[in-house]
Design a protein that fits this description.
The chain is α+β, with helices and mostly antiparallel strands. It has 7 helices and 11 strands. It has a 9-stranded antiparallel sheet, sandwiched between helices. It has a two-stranded antiparallel sheet with strand order 8-9. Helix 2 crosses helix 4 and helix 2 packs across helix 5. It is globular.
């Protein structure tokens, strides 16, 4: 797939693109355009615009009602990569999976297979949607850019970050399974009948979440994280972070797919 086919939208810091191996027609990426750019208020604000625009585009083009995010932090899936996407590059990358009634394969079904047995969406099928995605992303980002707070509106760099709740779920996918959730989140109504619901998460809250993920990575026996953010509908936003290590005896992502919240979001 050529670069022009893969790239769907470029913002100031991030870009929305197709992965090398699209597992569903609703599989998009948000990735950092320049890996040297720090994750600060400016880049966090830009990520929010890209994420919201991508969700609106998924709703407009595919009538996707929900969208789950999967990403890795200081971790590259190895071997069969059961339970997670194959690594794209060392550049920070977030995989978005829109879900709609007409899908022929679910992300979870693909994740249960070893990476070499997954069936990518044919290029001709992606071609039917990608022009629509490009147009919808440009349109949504332009509208969001008119109302989205600028980085300076969130406050100065170095100001105290919002509180993040952290707990071990009652049913754990592994010994290093932690759930993170920003405090005081309020559900935000979608702007159109086609857009999935979303949450009004602030750029400082994203920075606070990133700091908590870094703390989790520093635990003994953990070399990185695999993270899943199930679409929560009208419930609170929750990030499931699983500690990973090259010598782990069991892949916790296999277990995570069986947990109700995650299985409902991906299977």
């Amino acid at each position: 797939m050529s670069l022009s086919r893969r790239l769907l939208f470029a913002s100031a810091v991030w870009e929305v693109a197709r992965p090398r191996t699209a597992l569903t027609a609703g599989h998009l990426l948000i990735r950092l355009s320049n890996p040297a750019v720090a994750f600060d208020l400016r880049s966090a604000s830009d990520w929010l615009v890209c994420h919201r625009a991508a969700r609106e585009a998924l709703g407009e083009v595919l009538d996707a009602r929900t969208c789950t995010v999967v990403f890795a932090h200081q971790w590259h899936p190895i071997g069969a990569a059961i339970g997670e996407p194959e690594v794209e590059s060392s550049t920070p990358t977030f995989h978005l999976f829109g879900r709609w009634d007409g899908e022929t394969a679910s992300p979870g079904e693909q994740f249960r297979l070893p990476a070499h047995r997954r069936i990518p969406v044919p290029a001709e099928e992606l071609a039917r949607y990608d022009d629509g995605f490009r147009a919808a992303l440009r349109r949504s980002a332009k509208e969001l850019g008119k109302t989205a707070p600028a980085a300076e509106d969130w406050g100065r760099e170095g100001a105290p970050l919002p509180a993040i709740r952290s707990w071990s779920p009652r049913v754990k996918a592994g010994i290093h399974h932690t759930v993170l959730s920003p405090e005081a989140l309020e559900p935000e109504s979608p702007p159109s009948g086609h857009s999935p619901g979303t949450f009004s998460v602030s750029a400082p809250a994203l920075l606070a979440m990133a700091a908590e993920l870094q703390v989790l990575t520093g635990r003994r026996g953990v070399s990185g994280l695999s993270c899943v953010v199930p679409d929560s509908g009208s419930g609170p936003l929750e990030v499931h972070a699983l500690g990973r290590a090259a010598g782990e005896p069991v892949n916790p992502m296999e277990r995570l797919l069986e947990l109700p919240k995650v299985s409902q979001a991906l299977l």
